[in-house]
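Write out the 3D structure for:
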Amino acid sequence: MSRVVLAGAEEDLALRVKQATDGDVHVLPPGRLPGDPSRLFEQLPDGELPDVLLVGPLAPPDQVLTLAARLDVQSPGITVVLIAEASPQMWQAAMRSGIRDLLSPSADVLSIREAVDRAGQAAAGRRRVLRPVSETDRYTGRVITIASPKGGVGKTTVSTNLAIGLTAAAPQSTVLVDLDVQFGDVGSALGLTPEYTLPDVVRGPASEDTMVLKTFLTQHPSGLYAVCGAESPAAGDTVTGDDVGRLLASLAREFRYVVVDTAPGLSEQTLAALDRASDVIMLTSMDVPGVRGLRKELDVLRELCMIPAGRHVVMNFADAKGGLSVRDVELAIGTGVDVVLPRSTSVPTSTNQGVPLLANGRKRDPMVKELRRLVSRFAATPLMRPGRYRAKHRASS
């Protein structure tokens, strides 16, 4: 039997599921189903992710479909089963969202048990295929590009903290690339004085041999590696999109996570980073110009077919007094906001000191909490933290 979590179920259905799973199920309390998988996982007592998520009829269908679609991208080792009245429209919407099975709310204990077993086997199969890269295997790293149409929205703050958080999850396996070729300040944000910078890394011996390449990287005390920005705008302008593509491909073979901080807009270098990305973090500030700019950038990237499956929308500088709500932003950009970073007085101090918030030990700061939630979208998934799959052989009746 798989590790099972049940949400959105009334008492009678919960009882049948408990009988079907021999009591091996965690029942979430009633309430709104979170659209963000990391918020769902926070409700689990031991932090271990499930193999199967059963969602009952008390959960609104739109919330279920949103959550299932995000789980399908972020946590493909979790199988979602929807307990609802089946219709052709529901089946179609469920399949598009990555839901693997539909079960009638009146299903008996045996039917539920069979559905859970099928779902558990599917989860185990997908996890075998999507197992974590072992230390002896070559990496095929996850390239995470942070992009925004305008400056001043906190890309470097998000990039450096994400990279520090991923380094804690996967020591010596994360590299941060500063692709703001003219005015990049990753080195300053991390308190680094690099010997080599981006132009040095993309040409010469470092571009031809990955062993040499690693010697051209700057190492942070946390274990994070960095490719710091050019010393001058003129030097940065010599880096081409082709240079960027080759560099990211080489780094992805050597590191589990490649975090890319880009310049505002859609420069040649940013487009090259998006072309190589397995994930993109679309960042906006909580103001009308930022939101409108993000909507335009999303439209352009859709037309170019350059939005990867791993798309994450992050809103920075959130402030209830600003006149906009998260729902306003979602309606304006036509998609959900995945992580909301509050306006924080601790960010300027962190930047000036060259110490990212996730490296200074503060745990109660609301900004730190949300940054950790962002990190968990990449680090705390079944690919990195697989749940147990306990097979219980039953005698056939």
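The longest helix spans residues 109-129.
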